[in-house]
Amino acid sequence: MAQALAEKVSSVPCHLSGITRLSFSPDGATIFTGGSDCLVRIHKADDPDSEPGFHDNHTDEITSLSCSSSNLVTGSKDNIARIFSYPANEFEGFVTRSSGVPIRWVSVDKAGERVAVCSDDLLVKIVHVKDTSRQSLLSDNAKPVRSATWDPSGKYLVTASCDGKLKVYDMTSSTPLNLKIIDGVIGPSESDSDVSCYAAWHPSGNFFAVPLRTNDIGIISREGWSKQATFSQDGHKSAVGELAFSPNGKYLASSSGSTVLVWSTETRTVISRHTVPEGSISGLSWSPKSNLLAFTSLDGSFHRWVDPVPSELPSPVATEAQAARKLDRLLDDEFDAEEDEDIEEKGEDLEGQYGDDWIVDDDGQYAADDDEKKWSKGRTEVVNVTKAQQPFTPGSTAMKNKKRYLAFNMIGVVDVTDQETHNVINVEFHDKSARRGYHFQDHSKFTMASLGEQGVVFAAPSEDESPSTVYYRPYDSWASQSDWTVSLLPEEDAVVVAAGGSAGDGMGSIVVATSKGFLRFFTTSGIQRYIWSLGEEVVTMAAGKEAVIIVHREGGTSLDGCQNLRYSIMDFDTFEIVQEGRVPLPKKVTLTWLGFTAEGAPAMYDSSGLLSILDRYRRFGQARWVPLLDSRTLQKEGRQETYWPVGVTDSHFTCVILKGSDKEPWFPRPLIQELDMRMPLLNMDNQHGKLEESVVRGNVRVSLLSDLDLDDSTLKATEVALDKELLQLVQGACKADNLSRALDAARMMRFPATIDAAAKIAAFYHLPGLEERIHGVKSENELRRRRQEKERRSRKSDIANVYAPPLASGVAGGSAGRQFADFAPRGGARRSFGGANGATGATGASGVSRAETPMHEPSGKAETFIPETPGNEVGTLPPLSPETKRKRDDENGVSEWGTAPTKKRNEEPSSHGGKNPFAAKKSGGSNPFAKPAVAKPLDAIKSTSFFERVDDIESSGAKPKAKASKAKATEGKANGGGTGAGGKQTTLFGIKKAPQRHQESISTETDETQGEDEETQAHVGVLEDSLVQETLLSPEPMDED
Description:
The chain is globular and about 155 Å long. A 5-stranded mixed β-sheet has the order 1-26-25-24-23, with no helix packed on it. Strands 2-29-28-27 form a 4-stranded antiparallel β-sheet, with no helix packed on it. Strands 3-4-5-6 form a 4-stranded antiparallel β-sheet, with no helix packed on it. The longest helix is centred in the C-terminal third of the chain and has 28 residues, at 768-795. Residues 333-384, 798-882, 884-914, 938-943 and 961-1041 have low confidence and may be disordered. It is an alpha+beta fold and 1041 residues long. Strand 40 and strand 41 form a beta hairpin. The protein starts with a strand and ends in an 8-residue tail after the last helix. It contains 16 helices and 52 strands.
């Protein structure tokens, strides 16, 4: 078995992706190909470098070709079989029509007199070419017939139907006669399957070959119509599609998938093979005159295989009798002078059969002349004409059996049924509790529709004298006559419509793209808001809640198969172009769906099965298409599925899964399914690759959410989920001892707590170096996060920056003053320290004025702070005497804890309001939460009962110092007496006053230890210890009632 040499096979792009057929003319001079671009190309068999001609009379995909000596017959999905003259290659007319369903197969008998036409209905029409009104019908079929082939004599016709039955008819009489039904040989299939199923007759007419359900090739003999033999040795591994016998019947060519095999019919073994790099084989035919095999593939390519039969084997064209006769006549010395053929023609005929081996080149000029001819011809570039993609509305389907979908999205479905005189439009919603469906008669015969959040818009092209119309119908309305209709200008047709806007009572938007390159904007009440002369052909568009995305063609299609599409996003409120760019479609790929995600990001789906989202679409000049899902990776081996998009969320692809060769959903309405997003990243077969994919997809979602006007909780929850996945990456990298990968994963984290958790993971696996580096990442991460947050806030123009309130003119000290400004006492007079009654303090000062209270400190005073070493504060006052220090301690006790100053036992409470407990102190004194130093060890103090120590002091006869008593008396006079707002306090910060006797004892004890305090002060910044120490050193028992 020989493998085809690369130089023996030539391939050229010829049609768009899809089923591509071909047919040789009986004289072998012309090869016809037809495909999904609605074109029939005409190739010269002997000149592969020449530019092909074409027929452009079709309006839909071409499904079948068959050529006789005088005519070419084609079948198309537009339910018309056409006929062209040959070799003039001119369109002559229609052969027949089907009943609104695609024609799948046409076959002309060898004489070129009759055509067998198969379609998706249950009939096979036999039409006479010269008089198309003469027709015969084969109507005994339970399922659609996929193919019908004539035997070489034109006596028998074999049909293959979708139910797996072969039927043999005798066509000699005016009424076809069914001779045999062969069941169980071929497998059942669908009418629009990419894999062909037909009978290939041997040139002798004694038998035909068919593909078996076992992936083999079977031979059915005319004697008894039974299976005789199979071609299976070293054969195909999947379903066989195309079959073709060589002109002399010595060889059989077959295809399965992308592999072509050439079999010897005598030995039933494979003699050569070739595999196409891309695309399955969809058409196959031998040249009637030479050792040439032509075939087409589903990617639209046209291939020529020169010398598929090795030169050492017999020719696939000439019979043995013909070869012997020609050789004898060439070697005969006696030639008839009157013969029309000369020796050159005989030599050329033998060259095709035997090659150049029979020529004896005595002087070496033969080869030289051949080389000169070859290089003098030159080479002509084959220009591929790419068919431009027609405008379409996302979610619409083609008409099939007089039914189609006009719109199919996440809101609902709009379908139409053709009733000849009018259409019936049915509107249904997925959520029937929110909206009620309805149906109505459509006499305008709308061809496009769009479901929005507030209503449905329909449009129809112009017809005869009727202009193109646009009709809008809301779901619910508080006003009467809320639906409206508008007619476009003469010679202007609507090509695409879109309904946008948010749900509710807001002003929605209707966008209509026309054939003149206009984009017309309406409100949902019918008011014309804007018109844009785009000047380019609109292919499709989709409307969201805030904007509309328009896909248009920039100029024409390119020669290499690209559609050259661009997109523009326009805001509904301002009509500004917020984003524009190129639609990334590879060669021979078309756009099949366009829409918005649940978060409002534009998304698209192409014919190759790739779903993409427009990332950073709110940042002008930064948008880029990011692939979210390649649906081809979802297909299981041995199963053919197509995914028809409906909508996209942040984590799911909502679609309709179509089985087999179906490309669009059909009736009854199929179920909608959700598929998990899976970006086409590498190493998706292991856990690390899946985590990386989830992180990358999550980063895309964070990028989208950060540009939206949403609460921070949604964004933060997404970032927390990403950090958890990064922690798993860190753990996996630590297990695999890949420390650099673990460090990179830590650098990608967003929250300090997560970075600390990553450091703990490194410590758990005993990786101190990694742990140290991860801790170093924490500060870098914080700076990066602050910078990103600042950039995000600057992008969100509608969210104002939050600043601190301005500093009041009477508050000094900067941030400290602002921090406690809201806690200043409201109403009432402030407590005066001696200034109100003219008394002076123990220090001889005239008293503290109102402007010098803690809430109104002089502006030059520094901000209050807690020093690390008490007594060594920078900029503090000189050390005070014990009497003055005692007075200041009492004043601080009032300002910090809210306790009333020490008064005499019978003195009435102060009538002034309470002091602000959080105001800054007058001077930069010591920390109010620090432990006062004591002469005795703390353990000794704690071990002695408070009341026992008081009793010891009283029994020893110790008296308070005079200055201390005087200071207290002065303080009491300054504070005033009476009852008022400054009454007794029972909170933690204001313990009830003790009797005067106990207070003086405690003051005496405190004064005795005051000198030692200055030598042994130590700062302790713990609130609980301060409270304990304050309770032990200066408790005040409850008042005696």
